[in-house]
Amino acid sequence: MNKPFFSIIVPCYNQADYLDECLESIISQTFTSWECIIVNDGSPDDSEGKAKKWTEKDSRIQYLSIKNGGVANARNVGIDSTTADWILPLDADDKIGSEYLERAKKSIDE
Q1: How far apart are the C-alpha atoms of 43 and 49, rounded to whole Å?
Q2: Buried b (16+ CB within 10 A) or exposed e, 6-31
Q3: Cα(4)–Cα(2) distance, rounded to whole angstroms?
Q4: Where are the beta strands (DSSP E) in 1-110?
Q5: What is the phi/psi pair of residue 68, to 5°?
Q6: Residues 6 or more apart from 93 whose CB is under 8 A from it?
Q7: Cα angle vertex 10, ends 84, 75, to 5°?
Q8: What is the pLDDT of residue 65?
């Protein structure tokens, strides 16, 4: 796999109810050079099951599971595991518009 331009880091703790919408907004991006790293911060809900289904749908989505240490720690674990030059932290209960990465790339290039 080529090095992605963006790495979208999605820390997740008890966000199973929102994770599908978040990940759907990522895979619908018009700019496709990205990876998504979901970091499950010890969630007792079904976050793991939902996340693993997405890793099967799209090879750009990765899943990590860690002991609960807080959202900042989970985000940092995700950042430490990427080789992308640009990082987009995105909480699991948020979503982005389909042209978000394309517009960000254009701004970076300018």
Answers
A1: 11
A2: bbbbbbbbbbbebbeebbebbeebeb
A3: 6
A4: 6-12, 34-40, 61-65, 86-89
A5: -55, 125
A6: 15, 18, 22
A7: 75
A8: 98
**pLDDT tens string for the chain (110 positions)?**
689 999 999 999 999 999 999 999 999 999 999 999 999 999 999 999 999 999 999 999 999 999 999 999 999 999 999 999 999 999 999 999 999 999 999 999 99
CA–centroid distance for 66 within its chain: 15
The pTM is what? Answer: 0.95
Rounded distance between C-alpha atoms, residue 70 and residue 20, angstroms: 21
Instruction: Write the single-letter amino acid at 83.
Output: T
Q: Would you say 41 and 11 are in contact if contact means Cβ atoms under 8 Å apart?
A: yes
